[in-house]
Amino acid sequence: MTQVQTVDQTEVSREVSKKQANKALLASMVGSSIEWFDFFLYGSLASLVFNKLFFPSHDPVVGLLLSYLSFGLSFFIRPLGGIVFSHIGDKIGRKKTLILTLSLMGGATFLIGLLPDYNAIGIWAPILLVVLRLCQGLGIGGEWGGSVLLAVEYAKKENRGFFGSIPQLGVPIGMLLGTLAISLTSALPEDQFLAWGWRLPFLLSAVLIFLGLWIRNGIDETPTFKEAKESGNIARVPLVATFRYHWKAVLLTVGAKFIETGPYYIFATFVIAYSTQYLGYDTVTVLNAVAIANLVTVIMIPCMGKLSDKIGRKPLYIGGTVGMILFAFPYFYLLSLKSAVWLTIATIIAIGIIWAPIEAVMGTMFSEIFSTNVRMTGISVGNQIGAAVFGGTAPMIALALLNAFNDSWIPIAIYIILAGVISLISLALMRETKDIELS
Q1: Among candidates 269, 287, 266, which has minimal Cα distance to 340?
Q2: Residue ranges of the Major facilitator superfamily (MFS) profile domain (predicted)?
Q3: Helix (H) / strand (E) containing 207
């Protein structure tokens, strides 16, 4: 009788554990998608609205550069967000951190939708916009590491790649939602879109934020962190411990991040301004191409995550990196054909096919090279420094290169190849991690 009861209790425990894991997986994906939706709204509107309403200039290129600068500044604040919130995550827990980051991001996004423009309050308009954008950067800096670990630390070794790929869906889903929202609102007459239409996605995001907070509030702390806390394996100052014992891993993470972040913001953000203002594409056509590419990515990422559980993280990451290097020149050539069909095909290949395996395994691979007591700090700092150096600056650098070389796209393609080479060097120095234990 006792043996039967023990077996029953074990089965119940496994079922509860499975439900908690699935719930954590949902929480990581939904919350991450909402935060990236908020984050990408700004990036997409930088070239359509903010350069006109918040950074007015007699020279359109200067206005666009200022708008992209405000976009890039948030990336430089992201490492600070990563440090602050990962300290909380490694000391107190992943769950509480994720509730804080989502609240910060949501509040800043909603307030952007209420912000008066330059004509209404003058210089305070761009100042307040930049402040709110920095708040978004702080939030997203702490969000990524927490959402990845919420999934990875709940997973079993044999499906960790798949679990770790699910929060990575937040990037394409967030971009997809943001692009669709802007496509719908930009269908308004231009004067109405600039007057009030662009504000609607920011204001309506409040509904998504409350949904995300409700889901995240109902989850438990990850088993791996619970185990570390019960055993007393908590770093006194996680940042110090990270750079003392894991500085090589941080550097390798930064280098590997380059190929994931810079090219994506060129393909998904810079391409909007480049295709419409330099190549004459219709705005809706470009937005639809980006949306379709991200939809393909949403399908590809979990498939690539599952594949990484069989063949490893490095082969997929290296394959995507090499693909990005080889496709840099063909991508811009296809855009130069000024065909909506080739624009869409090029964007699908770049984001949906080549970038997807990189994105799918990045979170899991980075998580597996740090120990539990500094894992959130390690992946957050490495990821956000890489994003700051090669991500937030990418649209601005691409635009500067375009104007410095008489509208030639060749230097931008070389810039993408450089990112790939740096990442390949970092990947060569990393070991395969799919079979290690996280504890």
Answers
A1: 287
A2: 24-434
A3: helix 199-217
- Check if the beta carbon of residue 74 is closer than 8 Å to that of residue 136: yes
Q: Which of 120, 90, 94, 293 is nearest to 195 (CA)?
A: 120
Q: How far apart are alpha carbons 44 and 27 in whole angstroms? A: 25
Write out the two tokens for 427: 């990947």
Which residue, among 130, 216, 212, 213, has the nearest Cα to 174 in the 3D structure? 212
Q: Measured between alpha carbons, how far is 81 from 384 in angstroms, rounded to an integer?
A: 9
d(CA 119, CA 416): 38
User: Helix H segments across 349-406?
Assistant: 356-367, 375-390, 394-404
Domain chopping of the chain, boundaries: 22-217+237-428
Taking the C-alpha atoms of residue 145 and residue 135, their distance in angstroms, rounded to an integer, is 17
Check if the beta carbon of residue 400 is closer than 8 Å to that of residue 65.
yes
Dist. CA 342–CA 357, nearest whole Å: 22
User: Which residue, among 117, 112, 78, 109, has the nearest Cα to 254 in the 3D structure?
Assistant: 78
- Domain 22-217+237-428 belongs to what architecture? Up-down Bundle (1.20)
Check pLDDT > 70 for residue 218. Answer: yes
Q: Round the average pLDDT of the chain to a whole number and report it.
A: 86
Q: What are the tens digits of pLDDT across the range 21-67?
A: 888 888 888 878 877 787 777 767 776 788 788 877 666 666 666 76
Give the integer Cα–Cα distance in Å for 171 and 264. Answer: 10
Q: What is the pLDDT of residue 9?
A: 41
H/E run at residue 330: helix 313-336
d(CA 136, CA 117): 19
What per-residue confidence (pLDDT) applies to 59? 63
